[in-house]
């Protein structure tokens, strides 16, 4: 799905290191960043953001959605 900001990633295992993404939660932007790492099954994704918390881990079960930019 493309909401005009990016393409919703349903299969997180398709994400690649260095890919630019946007993270949203309940439709609100959490931030944009770069994929730092992803497990083979896509259940865990690490994204590098700027600021005080530069690297965050997202689990597949978390409410955040990841959009490819």
Describe the 3D structure:
There is one protein chain. The chain is built from no helices and six strands. The chain has a domain at 1-32 and 59-69. The chain has a six-stranded antiparallel beta sheet, with no helix packed on it. A hairpin with a 5-residue loop joins strand 3 (28-38) and strand 4. 0% of the residues lie in helices and 49% in strands. The mean pLDDT is 92. It has 69 residues and is mostly beta strands.
How is this structure best summarized?
The chain has 69 residues and is an all-beta fold. Helices cover 0% and strands 49% of the residues.
Distance between the termini: 12 Å
Q: Helix segment count?
A: 0
Main sheet strand line-up: 1-6-2-3-4-5
Shape, per Cα inertia axes: globular
């Amino acid at each position: 799905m493309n909401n005009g900001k990016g393409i919703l990633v349903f299969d997180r295992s398709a994400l690649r290191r260095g890919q630019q993404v946007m993270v949203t939660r309940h439709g609100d932007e959490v931030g944009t960043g770069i994929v730092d790492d992803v497990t083979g099954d896509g259940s865990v994704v690490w994204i590098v953001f700027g600021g005080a918390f530069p690297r965050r881990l997202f689990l597949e079960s978390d409410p955040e959605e990841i959009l490819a930019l």
